[in-house]
Amino acid sequence: MALETSVIQDKLTEKFGNNVTGFIQIKDIFSFEVEAASANDVMRFLKEDATLRFNFLTDICGVHYPDNETERQFAVVYHMHNWVDNVRIRFKAFLNGENPEIDSATNLFLGANWQERETYDFYGIIFKGHPQLKRILNMDEMVSFPMRKEFPMEDGGRTDKDDRFFGRTTDNAKINQE
């Protein structure tokens, strides 16, 4: 018998109470929120519980919500997969915008290492207890985190692009004349 979402929700709420909330089915992925302080414990439970068996950490990524209140300006999103029942889940832990920190998952999944480094590299989220939290794709000398929405998408000083050719103007008559 396949693992039902109701079983996942019941086991999580029984074990963690109000530290897990917002259960919802989005397409084929069961999703919920976890208090940041409980994320590592929830992940361990999902992995080690004999019924749940979410034995594979598929992905870790960050999200920046600059318009949210300070306590919810960043989120870390985890995707896990139960290979036995072929069930996927996603959960999100919101972080404080002034001090975005969460416990590392490298103690549970070795594959979390590079995923957390990438999330740190692009969002500046600190994974406490990570064995070597440093940039993985950007230069070590960078002082900014390029996926934060406070940074412009493009360099305003570029001279090699003409916005008219990228659909950024409504003056089609001028383009047709050239």
Tally of separate helices:
4
Number of strands: 7
Q: Which class do the helix and strand fractions yield?
A: alpha/beta
Tell me roughly what share of residues is in helical segments: 10-25%
Oligomer: single chain
Largest sheet: 5 strands, mixed
Structural features, described:
With 178 residues, this protein is an alpha/beta fold. It has one domain (5-150): NADH:ubiquinone oxidoreductase Nqo5 subunit (Beta Polymerase, domain 2), CATH 3.30.460. It has four helices and seven strands. The protein has helices at residues 5-16, 39-48, 112-123, 172-177; strands at residues 20-26, 29-34, 56-64, 74-82, 87-95, 101-103, 126-128. The strands form two sheets. It has a five-stranded mixed sheet. The longest helix has 12 residues, at 5-16. The termini are far apart. 25% of the residues are buried.
Comma- or semicolon-separated keywords:
Beta Polymerase, domain 2; alpha/beta; 4 helices; single chain; five-stranded mixed beta sheet; 178 residues; 26% strand; 22% helix; two-stranded parallel ribbon
Give a summary of the structure in a few sentences.
The longest helix is centred in the first third of the chain and has 12 residues, at 5-16. The chain contains four helices and seven strands, in the order H-E-E-H-E-E-E-E-H-E-H. Helix 3 links the parallel strand 6 (101-103) and strand 7.
